[in-house]
Task: inverse folding
């Protein structure tokens, strides 16, 4: 794994900001790291980028421990904080050379890498402008370029599209997609569309604890506490029939002969529904797992109190 978070804890006074968080991310994977405000996302990211020490536990980047080898870890990581810190009075190319030099890049290598990230981030026409003259979208591109200039293997982005218009968001998405095949990307966002558009997998954290770690599609099919199944018959049926089926928690009408069944995660529920229909001579028109909106799943998971 490119990045492993192992039993991570961080305590401020009597408050656990991060409480036994563990997850791993592979090379080529885009991970969405989600949670409400105050959930522990930024704290976890700051620990992973060596900005903050944990109370206990650790983060391993390409086999390097953030506690034992922080300088080597920093060479492996590119980081774009939520509030993109830029030197506004510097020219774009000047700023990127400066950042590269902080990573001990010199001469032809530095010149080559600056040219590469300028091209990758679409900054060719802007590279000779002062950063203060750029739009917010282009400033975000500069922030992304500085995170990439030293060619890190792991890219950590905290709210990279905040405040951007739809066109700018799509442009940043394009850059992230283009690098994801050969780098590990972790990004935090409050925008669920970003997760659906970009992520292979999602980790959701709430009150310092991981409450979900799943591929995006699977998470939508398996909301907090169970699955949602839509069934349709050729005519209305008595919903009381479903109460006989083990694993069905509740039923709601979804049309004249359609029903949404809130079930447990028991994979046998669907076969029991088929048997119910056959035993009662009910022509079954359709049965499928429903995808919940990611927003709904997120709300369900983060409104619950994690078990201590």
Result:
């Amino acid at each position: 794994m490119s990045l492993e978070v192992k039993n991570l804890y961080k305590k401020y006074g009597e408050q656990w900001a991060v409480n036994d968080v563990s997850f791993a991310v592979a090379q080529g994977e885009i991970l969405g790291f989600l949670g409400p405000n105050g959930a522990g996302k930024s704290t976890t990211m700051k620990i992973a980028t060596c900005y903050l020490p944990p109370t206990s536990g650790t983060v391993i980047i390409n086999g390097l421990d953030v506690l034992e080898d922080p300088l080597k870890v920093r060479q492996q990581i590119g980081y774009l904080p939520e509030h993109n810190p830029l030197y506004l009075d510097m020219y774009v190319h000047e700023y990127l050379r400066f950042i590269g030099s902080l990573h001990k890049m010199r001469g032809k290598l530095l010149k080559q890498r600056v040219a590469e990230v300028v091209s990758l981030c679409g900054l060719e026409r802007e590279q000779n402008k002062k950063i203060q003259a750029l739009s917010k979208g282009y400033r975000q591109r500069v922030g992304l370029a500085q995170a990439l200039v030293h060619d890190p293997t792991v890219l950590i982005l905290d709210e990279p599209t905040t405040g951007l218009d739809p066109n700018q968001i799509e442009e940043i998405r394009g850059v992230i997609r283009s690098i994801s095949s050969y780098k590990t990307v972790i990004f935090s966002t409050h925008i669920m569309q970003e997760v659906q558009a970009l992520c292979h997998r999602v980790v959701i954290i709430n009150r310092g604890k991981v409450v979900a770690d799943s591929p995006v599609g699977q998470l939508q099919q398996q909301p907090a506490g169970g699955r949602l199944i839509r069934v349709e018959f050729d005519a209305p049926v008595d919903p009381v029939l479903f109460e006989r089926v083990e694993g069905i928690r509740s039923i709601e009408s979804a049309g004249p002969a359609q029903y949404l069944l809130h079930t447990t995660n028991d994979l046998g529920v669907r076969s029991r529904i088929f048997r119910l229909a056959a035993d009662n001579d009910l022509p079954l028109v359709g049965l499928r797992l429903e995808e919940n909106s990611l927003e709904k799943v997120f709300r369900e998971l983060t409104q619950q109190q994690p078990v201590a």
In short: Residues 22 and 202 are 13 Å apart (CA to CA). The radius of gyration is 24 Å.
